[in-house]
């Protein structure tokens, strides 16, 4: 996928580019807001990642200009400003997602996935976990033989999120945001506990678990080979 | 000295009036005493003169008409039974006597021997009668035949006169004192009014955001000067804190970018090593970086809250849904620790609140409660709906808050003495709770519950 990254910090640019390229994306970098705007309008990108504080033009203005020029490419903000009001400002300006520094690279990748999938209108993703099929409408796990387990709303949302990003490590921060709508560290083990409950419902004892823990990073769903 | 003499809680007007009263009463008493003394001495001088005149008259009457004449004169001249006359021969025997005939007085005519010994002032001997009785003035004159005529007068009528005048003077004095109080009350009230309004202004200052200034009424120039001096100090303080805060904000803001760089590198390192110990260290480092970022964010939030600069994103939210979600978030943690979580929301209401901030504030209270509640204890999240406000209580069965610490645990970086080295926390959690509650127009506080344990609460105005 072709991505545009506008970020004025060279070190951070280097890291993000390394990570995005490793994930198979093609990245074009800009240090100034106005340059980024020109590029975003002229060339075709799949996702635009914008820093808010940039020389030339700030990220919010870039998006407003882009939207004014009917450029509908998804935009993710990358910023040191972390307030609900800043976030709302970013989203009303026309941004699609908002990520505060410092962030986990995997989280950026997950958010890019979300935007790409939304742009492609597919959205179904992998709905099979081993022998189980996930019925998101009825919030139920089913087996071919008719055996079933009910899921609680949050369990279902969490599982769906993991299935949407197979092979991608999802940070606790990202899961808390998407499943619990919480954008601060609540200091509880609610994510771990919920994953634990999901595993109890999904896994057959003695087999490798489909939701794996990556220490210090988060959780990853590995589709069965 | 004045304030020590009078009860300190008495308002200044009353103190002034009281002082004025004491002053007036003292000066009136002094005046009355002096006036009484002057009057008494004048009346005595007059009495003496009358006595001497009478003696001369008796002497000439005696010369003309003998004892008979004296008797006639005594009877005709006696007015108030307060006079007496004696005539003694040269050897001391009494030849003629007219007594002080007022029986109530019981003032005895002194014995001649003692009378002779008395000192004489201007020809008149004065006898002080013991006790409060009137005293008697006795004068003598040698009659032409060598006999001695004694004439005595008591000052009874003078005393009555003085007492009468005194009484009226006292009436006048008390009336004057009372009348003097009226202008005192009026003037003191007038003078103190600006002081009172200044006190109100200072109190508003204490509750305010730090941008308010002391306002003095223009009536009292000294107060205006005082307010100006005070405001200069406030200006300087605000300037200094402003600079400090700007530096703080800048620092917190600038910390994010380096933290992001460190995190990126640490992540890359974590992913590239296969050695389990190194991976473990990298994972821990990542955790610590996240904790540092969260701390930076909390400092910024608390700081903004302290200066009414916390921007809220208010939206209509059901308080029951909000609390249910938060309790849900902590139920598993609580179960792990053997603590029971209860939710008690008897009545739901929709409030305009910032969901993220308020969730974080209540989450901090729950996190706190979980830290201090021993296993087999319980935590109750209770919502109390009032007319004007909605109060969210987080009640635990922990040790409670030590008396005297109810206020300072809300300060930045202050942790209660119940906090142990084992329990994590920087002491910012409660500051954030209060910052969020205040930003919503509410308040936050803590009480110890009667049965033990703490009751932390956040109040939100119903209109919020």
Describe the structure.
The complex is a heterodimer of chains A (225) and B (464). Chain A has 225 residues and is of the alpha/beta class. Chain A has 2 domains: 2-120, 3-Layer(aba) Sandwich (Rossmann fold), CATH 3.40.50; 128-221, Orthogonal Bundle (Arc Repressor Mutant, subunit A), CATH 1.10.10. Chain A has helices at residues 10-22, 33-42, 59-68, 84-92, 105-120, 153-164, 172-180, 190-202, and strands at 2-6, 26-30, 47-51, 75-79, 97-100, 128-129, 132-135, 140-143, 148-150, 211-214, 218-221. In chain A, the strands form 3 sheets. Chain A has a 5-stranded parallel beta sheet with strand order 2-1-3-4-5, with helices on both faces. In chain A, a hairpin with a 4-residue loop joins β7 and β8. In chain A, α2 (33-42) packs parallel to α3 (59-68), α6 (153-164) crosses α7 (172-180) and α6 packs across α8. Chain A is elongated and about 60 Å long. Chain B is of the alpha+beta class and 464 residues long. Chain B has 9 helices and 12 strands. Chain B has helices at 2-5, 12-77, 112-117, 156-207, 221-272, 276-306, 319-336, 355-372, 429-439, and strands at residues 83-88, 94-98, 124-127, 136-142, 148-154, 314-318, 340-344, 350-354, 378-385, 389-396, 443-448, 454-461. Chain B has a 5-stranded antiparallel beta sheet, covered by helices on one side. Chain B has a 5-stranded mixed beta sheet with strand order 7-9-10-12-11. Chain B has a two-stranded antiparallel ribbon with strand order 6-8.
